[in-house]
Amino acid sequence: MGQVRQYNRHAAYGQRTKTGARTGKNRGMYVYDNTARRLDEQHRIEEPARRPVQNEVRKNRDKAHHMSMGYVMFLSAALIAAGLILVNYVQLQAELTNITKSNADLESTLNYKQLSNDEAYNRVMNSVDLEEVKRIAIGELGMVYAQDGQICTYEGEESDYMRQVIRDTK
Fold it and tell me: Do 18 and 25 contact (CB within 8 A), yes or no?
């Protein structure tokens, strides 16, 4: 290896000085481009010889490469089952998407109806004059405010519904 490097150094010196190209020693070493040539080819490493394959090993390898009818049927059944599961999954996803969209539509309808109901309620409440109602109730209908003894409080035990019975105190 050291000799090759030294020889290449002389060739490079010959190129720079143009003296090496004229001598017979360096005639084949003149480099015409920017890459250096290999002078010594490395010999390929020979692969070790393989032992002959035994008959049992060859039979096992052949058997491993061969698929039986049962194995093919099993793989076909597994493929069909996986396909059916995937199709069912896609259908469920589509159904879920449709339900979500219909739910969103129903919610927007509910919100619109609640807003319109609140607007109508506020419009009715703003149109009623409570002072006018009070004047008519007291002046024309003869209503009066309740006295302390007239108010009865009831406690409900089971239900929220209560029936009121008016007693005549006259």
Answer: no
- State how far the Cα of 127 lies from the Cα of 125, in Å rounded to an integer: 5
Instruction: Report pLDDT digits (tens) over 39-72.
Output: 555 555 566 667 777 888 878 887 777 778 888 8
Residue 109 CA neighbour count, 13 Å, CB half: 6
Q: How far apart are CA 14 and CA 116, in angstroms?
A: 101
All structural domains of the chain with their residue ranges: 1-35, 68-144
Look up the pTM and report it: 0.40
Average pLDDT, the chain: 78
What are the distances in angstroms from CA 120 to CA 106, 114, 169?
Answer: 21, 10, 41
